[in-house]
Amino acid sequence: MKKSILFLSAAVGLLATTSCQNFKKGDGGLEYNIVKDAGAEKAQAGDLLSVDMIVTSDRKDSLLQSTYDIGLPQIVNIAPDSIPGLYAGDYNSMFKMLGEGDSAVFRLNLDTMAAKTGQPKPEFADHYATFKVKVRKHFKKGDLTDSALYAQIDEYFKAEIETLKQAEEGKLASYISKNKLEPKKTDSGLQYIVKEEGSGNKAVVGDTVVVNYTGSLVNGKIFDTNNAETAKKENTFNPMRQYEPIRFRVGHDPVIQGWTEGLQLLNKGSKATLLVPSSIGYGERGGGTIPPYAPLVFDVELVDIIPGPTEAPADSAAVN
Fold first, then answer.
1. pTM for this one?
2. CB 294 within 8 A of CB 261
3. Given 63, 77, 150, 183, which residue has the most CB atoms within 10 angstroms?
């Protein structure tokens, strides 16, 4: 938990530091500000950097990516300049200015990128993408074989994931304390708060449930919702998606165990918060924007319960 707090503090500090930038001009329209130079050797072609990074565009509410949401760094491969499509002042150039312990802010000129690469300019920005970068570790290629270099990366990530595993219980406890919750807890570790009681029978295995939901990490980052307005606020709205209640048959359709168990605690019309540990969520692998060993928060509304088929007695089909 302490490490996660440090990462978040670093992100906030970097954002505060970069709120008023004095950028230097580089090749290809690249602008940069080295916030901290730790004096370490800078990355070269073939090296790998483990970085924390926040990416935004020059549009309002334009957060595009943040490793702080996931709690895991991103690995950046420093490519040789001979690769077609690379140019001075591009994405690759940024990281060659950095070494272990360094932090910096870069503004990548997307008009230059389009002109140099012959590719259309990305639609997520007008002219610039901004990268706020902090280097955690520098993996030097040197004389190492590719397999030896990537073995180092593998061991590094195993340690990072173990840190997430050890932090999970503390993250969930902190969330409960911060939000002054008093959840009930089941034997599986699921915790839940019924905010509005519904009526009628509770859902059982075989029933089809109709559910509105919003899922988030304990840091408040929403990773999925069927609410269009919420998706728009989070800049995750997909115009190709139908934002409507999800339907699934309890115990038959593949959903996480936390949902299968949690929705059987509710009756029609109930609204509740489900606190789902990773053991009954997405586990050690995570999924999409959900990190490994991530406790999850689901705000759910059980809109309807459609009773499952009633099985006839075993001898009812017998003909005398």
1. 0.80
2. no
3. 183
